[in-house]
Amino acid sequence: MLAAEGSLTGMRGHRMKPKMRMVGVVAAAFAAGAVLGPVVLPPVVSAFAQETGNRAETYRLLNLFGDIFERVRAEYVEPVNDREVIESAINGMLQGLDPHSSYMNARSFRDMQVQTRGEFGGLGIEVSQEGGYVKVISPIDDTPAARAGVKPGDLITHLNGSSVQGLTLQEAVEQMRGERGTTIKLTIRRPGTETPIELSLTRDVIRPQVARFRMEGNDIGYVRLSSFNEQTDAALRRAVTSLRQQAGGNLKGLILDLRNNPGGLLDQAVQVSDDFLEQGEIVSTRARRADEGQRWNAKPGDITDGLRVVVLVNGGSASASEIVAGALQDHRRAIVLGTRSFGKGSVQTVMPIPGNGAIRLTTARYYTPSGRSIQATGINPDIEVLATREEANAPLRDREADLRRALRNDNGSAEAPPLPPTNLPAGVAEKVSRMPPEGAPAFDPTKPETDFQAQQAAALLRAWAAADPQRRAGR
C-alpha cells in the first residue's frame, strides 16, 4: 500500500529515498504486516504557529497537553507507561485528521518495510476500523484468511474471545500477528448473518502471489493483480509474456482483474499503467502548496502491442487500483467493467521519526489524466456488471465516503470534462449482461466459469474482436 516517489529498500538494489508516498488501502493495516515509507518535515508546531500567526496560543495548548500528561502520570488508577501514553496521544492527533493518517511505532514501521517487499507474516487480511471493531477490507488471495472464508465487510469483534473494543487498529493488528503455525480464534459479525461466526486460523508466512493468470478458452488472457508491492510490475510482465506464448498468436484480448485489490505502491501503479500506454499523463497529485504537485507521464511502449483490454473493478478496488483503472479509462485504452470502486483518492507520505517509528500523513490528493478526483466518489465502470443477482438489492458496500472524517471531493464547480465515448463497435456493449441469470451457480474461486463478471468481460472481448477484426492482436 505504499506509494513511493522513488524506490524502497530492497527494490532493484536502490536505497530508500528520503520521501515516500502511499496511495494504499483505506488506512488499512495488514493483519500480518503494515505499510512503509519516509520523509522528514519541519516541526508541525512551528509550521502551525507561523501559519496561524498565533504562536502564544499554540504554546498555551502545548502546556495544556503537558498538564494533562502529568495529571495522568500522577493520578491514573494504575501506573502508566510514558511512551505508550504519548504514542497514543500522537496517534489520536493523526487519526483525528482523516481515516488514513496514523502513527507507527518502530515495530510497525519495520513490518511495513517487510510487507512492501511482498512477504510478511500473519493471517493475510487488509483491515480498517469501524465503530470500534476491526473491519475486513479484503482477504489476500491464498492466505489463511482467504482459505478460512473471511469476506470483505466482515467485522471482527473478538480475538481469542476478547473484545476488540477499546483497542486501536494497530493494537488489534499486532494481536493478529504471530509465529507461523500458531493459531488465533476470530469472532466475526457478517452482514446478513444473525449469529456470530467463529473461525480458527493458523498463522503463516504470507507470500501473496501478486499476479495470477490463466487463459480463458484459447483466445482471452486473464491476469489478476492482488496488490501493488515491489513485485507487481515484473509479475504482470511475466504473466503477459506467458499468456501470449500460450495463445500462440491467437490472443484476442486481456482481462486485468483489480477487484478487491486494496492498492499499494504509487510507483507500481504508475508502471502498470505505463505498461499499457504509449504516451500521455498517468496520474497527478496536488498538495496543500501548489509548487508541491507532481505529474507522471507514460513512456513509449505497450507490453500487449495494442491488445484489447478490459479492467475489472468493484467496491474493494482502492487507491493504486483506481489510479490504473482511471488512467486506462481516461485514455480509452481499456473498458472498465464491474461496479463502482472504493474511492480513495488521497496520498499519504510516510515520515520516519529516527528511533521512534514513523508517521503516515495525508499530504495530497491524486487526479486521473482528465483531472478527475476520485476521492469519495470512485471510478464508475463503463459497463456495470454485478457479481450476483443479490447485489442488485443488497445494501451498498461501505466505501471511502462512509469513513469518518473522510476528505471531501474537491472537484466542486470545476468538474473534469466528460470522458470521451468508449468507441466500442455498435452492438458490442449490448451483448454484456448486467447480472447473472436466475439459478446461476454461486461463485467458486476454484471454478473460473462461475465468475460471472470475468465471463462477461471475456464475452465482451470476443464480441469486440469479431466486430473489429482489423485491430492488432497481441503477438
Automatic annotation (TrEMBL):
Q: Which domain of life is it from?
A: Bacteria
Give the record's keywords alphabetically: Hydrolase, Protease, Serine protease
Query: Do the record's keywords include Hydrolase?
Result: yes
> Is the keyword Protease assigned to this protein?
yes
Q: What class of enzyme is it?
A: hydrolase
Which Pfam families does the UniProt entry name for this protein?
CtpB_N-like (PF22694), PDZ_2 (PF13180), Peptidase_S41 (PF03572)
What is one Gene Ontology biological process annotated in the Swiss-Prot or TrEMBL record? signal transduction
State the family named in the UniProt similarity comment for this chain: Belongs to the peptidase S41A family.
Q: What is this protein called?
A: Peptidase, S41 family
Source organism of the structure? Pseudoroseomonas cervicalis ATCC 49957
